[in-house]
Structure formats: structure tokens, C-alpha cells
Design brief:
By secondary structure, this protein is α+β, with helices and mostly antiparallel strands. It is 28% helix and 46% strand.
Length: 381
């Protein structure tokens, strides 16, 4: 029983080290005076082992000897042993990579939600051009909940301390100019919308999420056909479809690391909506299905010497040398893409005062559990 307990403890310890950056694997590289085998932290081994030729070229170009290589590798491993003096993990590359990949998934869920906050009209159908002219145009502002906890984890692993005070959930803003025109002869209407967001130019938002910046552009259009045309105190019911194209990026910029994430998304939407006009109030409810394809590419440039060590540490110069020679990676990147279906329910209320239209709406993504909301002010007739 004692032997089994010891074996279990040893096995558990082995797994614990393997899961951290402290576990090292051997790698053979070549200096100017011959080959040498060094220990590389498991955290970066997969990246380094695939770049042996590049490392060897850098070592030869810099005239690096075996003793210097061994010393640099030892300093890297010593830095990893003391790494939690500076960052909250002993596997910064692994945490950063996983965090960025997970954030890509979260962002891919939020983008379709932000798209559908645009061009929401309380009335399920605004009417035909003939015999009366029906048109609306104005400004729409929406928000969707965005989970940035995984992005924070990645940033902290890269030594970006400024993100500590950012909430795990932020609101992803949308500010849109939109217009809707009534149909000709048949009972339909057509809407168009466009939006561009750059948080670096929005002072209050920029300060709230610093050092993170978000750049976002979307363009969309939809058409709705009235099943029930309705009227005063009679309900309207429409079905419709729309298409959105979105692209943008998220950047994190700090002294120790710079990360960029670029995304593109195309979304096809089908929806149904019912509304009724009660004097000047227009309550409405509906449902949507979004079919979205999103691709994300990200890249990180990191100064590992500043992340896992500080000037004055006995091992700082060795870590800097390892970075310069490629024994530590200075950059890494990744990408992801996928197709998803997002069912939503939405509803709200409109206020129709002569030529002024105010609409407040909310929606909930059933699959990704993301709440969103929007408010619009339009001139409509």
C-alpha cells in the first residue's frame, strides 16, 4: 500500500510538472564549436523544436559557443523557476495561446449579436411607398455582452498588468446609421445599415478598456414581407431575411507584448416579428436565426526577457541572449474559423410621435447565452 501511494504521488508530481513551464525537454542545437544539448521549458518547447534550423543560423551568425548556449538555456530555466515573481502563471506561452484562442471563440459569438442590434424597427412592417410614402432613417446604438476574461488571462501571462482592473465582462458597443424604405406594390420594406467603431477615438471607452483597443466595421441589409399588414389596433406580422458583413480587430499594446487579432464575419439572418400599435406605443416581439461564418487571425510579439525576468536579475542577460538567438520565441500566431447557428429571441417597445420614432429593444442569444440591447432615434413617416 505504501509503495502504491508513493508511485501515485510520483505520478501526480510528474503530471503537475508536465502541465507547467517548469518541465523541460532536451533539444540539440549547434554553436560555432559544435553541437550541444540543452533543456527547453515545456511551455515553449513545441515552438522552439520546430525552428532548429533558424536557431542554428542565428547561433552561427552571432558566433555563439556551446558554453554560451548552455548558460543561456540554464538562465531561461532559472527564470521559469522564479517566474511567478512577475506573472501569475509558470506557463505564459500556453496560457496566452489558449486565452487568445478562447477569446476568438467568444468574439465569434458576439459579432453576430452585435450585427442584429442594428436597424431594429418596432413596427413589423412600415408600409408601402404607394399610396403613402413610408420611410425612416436615424441613429441606432446597441451593446452586447463580451466576455474578456480569457483575453485578460492571455494579457496577464504576457506581463500586461494594466488589464487587472478590467471587468471580466464588457459591453461591446455598436453605433449605427440606418434607413428603411417601404415596399412598392407588394407589402414589404427594405432596410440598410452601416457602422464603424474605433475605441481608440472614443475617449471614455478607450480609458475603460486600455490597453485594449477595438476597431469594428459592418455593413448590412434586410428585407421584410408582411404576412398581416395590420393597422391601427390590429397586429402586424412579417417574415424577413438579411445579410451582414463585418470585419475588425482587437489590439493589446504594452511594453512587454503586443498582440493583434483580426476577424471577418459574414452572417445570413432569417427572422419573424409581430407588433401592434396602441395609440403612440408599439410593443413588438420576434425571433431570429443567424447563420454565421467567422474567421480570426491573431499574432503576438513578446519580449520574454521583460516578461519572465527583470533587469538586475542574475538570469536576465541569459534570457535576453536566448531571445536574441531564438532559443525563446519572440513571436507566435494562430488562426481559427468556423460556421455557427445562433437562435435569438427579441422584443421591445417603440414610441411613435408624429415624425419622431424612438425604439428600445433587447435580445437574447439562446445558444451562446449573450444578452444584447439597443436604442434608436429616427425620423420616420
Amino acid at each position: 500500500m505504501v509503495k502504491k501511494t508513493k508511485r501515485f504521488a510520483a505520478l501526480a508530481m510528474t503530471f503537475a510538472f508536465a502541465a507547467s513551464g517548469l518541465f523541460a525537454k532536451p533539444l540539440t542545437v549547434k554553436g560555432v564549436d559544435g553541437e550541444v544539448t540543452i533543456d527547453i521549458p515545456d511551455d515553449v518547447y513545441n515552438m522552439v523544436s520546430g525552428r532548429v534550423d533558424e536557431i542554428n543560423n542565428a547561433l552561427l551568425e552571432n558566433g555563439v559557443k556551446k558554453s554560451q548556449i548552455t548558460n543561456a538555456a540554464d538562465m531561461v530555466n532559472e527564470a521559469y523557476e522564479n517566474i511567478k515573481d512577475y506573472i501569475p502563471t509558470d506557463s505564459p506561452f500556453t496560457v496566452a495561446e489558449n486565452g487568445l484562442n478562447d477569446f476568438c471563440d467568444d468574439l465569434a459569438d458576439v459579432i453576430p449579436n452585435s450585427q442584429t442590434q442594428q436597424n431594429v424597427y418596432a413596427e413589423a412592417w412600415i408600409g408601402k411607398i404607394f399610396p403613402g410614402f413610408h420611410f425612416g432613417a436615424g441613429v441606432n446604438a446597441g451593446v452586447s455582452a463580451l466576455d474578456v476574461s480569457t483575453l485578460k488571462d492571455a494579457a496577464l501571462a504576457l506581463g500586461v498588468d494594466d488589464v487587472k482592473d478590467i471587468n471580466d465582462t464588457l459591453v461591446f458597443p455598436t453605433i449605427t446609421v440606418d434607413a428603411r424604405l417601404g415596399g412598392i406594390i407588394l407589402p414589404f420594406d427594405i432596410g440598410v445599415t452601416a457602422m464603424s467603431i474605433d475605441t481608440s477615438k472614443m475617449d471614455s471607452v478607450d480609458k475603460a478598456i486600455d490597453p485594449v483597443a477595438i476597431d469594428f466595421f459592418t455593413l448590412g441589409a434586410d428585407i421584410r414581407y408582411a404576412i398581416f399588414q395590420g393597422g391601427f389596433m390590429r397586429p402586424k406580422w412579417s417574415v424577413g431575411a438579411g445579410f451582414y458583413y463585418t470585419k475588425g480587430g482587437v489590439d493589446v499594446d504594452d511594453d512587454t507584448a503586443k498582440a493583434s487579432l483580426d476577424f471577418k464575419s459574414t452572417t445570413f439572418m432569417v427572422n419573424t416579428q409581430a407588433s401592434i400599435k396602441l395609440l403612440c406605443l408599439v410593443p413588438f416581439i420576434g425571433g431570429r436565426a443567424l447563420f454565421s461564418k467567422t474567421s480570426v487571425d491573431w499574432k503576438v510579439n513578446a519580449d520574454w526577457a521583460k516578461i519572465i525576468a527583470k533587469e538586475g536579475d542574475a538570469y536576465y542577460d541569459g534570457v535576453a541572449d536566448a531571445l536574441r538567438w531564438g532559443i525563446l520565441p519572440s513571436s507566435f500566431s494562430g488562426s481559427s474559423s468556423g460556421f455557427s447557428v445562433y437562435p435569438q429571441v427579441f422584443g421591445g417597445i417603440g414610441l411613435d410621435l408624429l415624425f419622431l420614432n424612438l425604439t428600445v429593444s433587447g435580445s437574447y442569444d439562446i445558444a451562446s447565452k449573450i444578452p444584447s440591447a439597443a436604442v434608436s432615434v429616427r425620423v420616420a413617416w
